[in-house]
Amino acid sequence: MAVDSKYDVFTYPTTNPESGAGHPGHTTPEQDELVAQLRKELEADGFTDRLDTLTLLRFLRARKFDVALAKKMYTDCETWRKEFKVDDLVKDFTFVEKPQVFEYYPQYYHKIDKDGRPVYIEKLGKINLTTIKTITTEERLIQNLVVEYERLANPRLPACSRKADKLLETSCTIMDIGGVGIQSMYSATEFLKKVSAISQNYYPERLGKLYIINAPWTFSTIWNGIKVFLDPVTVSKIRILKGPSEYEAVLKEQIPAENLPKEFGGLCECQGGCQLADAGPWNDPQYMEPAVPAATTTAAPAEVTENQI
User: Domain CRAL-TRIO: where (predicted)?
Assistant: First the structure.
């Protein structure tokens, strides 16, 4: 990978032999030049954080290596981070109401797939925003989502990269839509639009695979109409699966049975429930190093900020 000594200081692998074109270690000289150009323009505008090559490549890939579009995406993201006070949230936010909220909207990371990526599970079928709002606020729901995105970037992905001995930048997602009712989805539409926008606009290139399970037969028709508007690369990452007889075998092809919760056909039964366990390499001491050194002793600036987007 073409590196910049000022920003590219990491404590985990930075290349993956299985990654595709445009990923770290798999770029052309022209793409390396675009990374340098984007960094130079952002520095000229006064930006100093999150200018490492891994981050800039994600923004460039998200915008097909169009520097102007990637720059706008990055600057919009930095503006949002400041307005939303993301760095303060990461330090101070505690979602104490999680057990109660997860009774109605479980969304959690749980162990890893066969590629070493964090597995993210979300059960939309249980969402009841009206009840949830008696437990917490929509603002705190979104704050928790943002904090979890930040924790995906650090410590989850660095820990998984160390364990796998290769760079991992994405997650494997299971989205259970079984039991989704028209009324519950209608009431949650605006909330889901907000969280979807945060994911797409501010955390690009984080989707590895997405399994939508327990899909009713009508969903396939809806999906066929939606996917024509999506990037073919995104579509290739998504599989629509029906009930357990269809999805259990497919999930176990990607996720070890011992890592897959029993409710999805796996063998895992964490004490206290998988959805609250936060089990994974990110909680294993041998993989829990800082994502970057606290300081460097080279001629570069002492502070080197790791990608937390």
Answer: 97-272
CATH 3.40.50.300 fits 92-287, yes or no: no
- Map tokens 């924790």 to a residue: 151
Q: Outline where the chain has alpha helix (H).
A: 29-44, 53-62, 67-84, 86-92, 98-101, 129-132, 138-151, 157-164, 182-202, 217-226, 232-236, 244-254, 274-277
* Type of residue numbered 284: D
Are residues 282 and 150 in contact, defined by beta-carbon separation less than 8 angstroms? no
**Which CATH architecture does the domain made up of 1-84 adopt?**
Orthogonal Bundle (1.10)
The token duo for 112 is 């890893």
- What is the domain partition of the chain in residue ranges? 1-84, 92-287
Q: Which residues pair with 46 in a beta bridge?
A: none
pLDDT tens over the chain, length 309 residues: 889 999 999 999 999 999 999 999 999 999 999 999 999 999 999 999 999 999 999 999 999 999 999 999 999 999 999 999 999 999 999 999 999 999 999 999 999 999 999 999 999 887 888 899 999 999 999 999 999 999 999 999 999 999 999 999 999 999 998 877 666 666 677 888 899 899 999 999 999 999 999 988 777 777 777 777 777 888 889 999 999 999 999 999 999 999 999 999 999 999 999 999 999 999 999 999 888 876 543 333 333 333 333
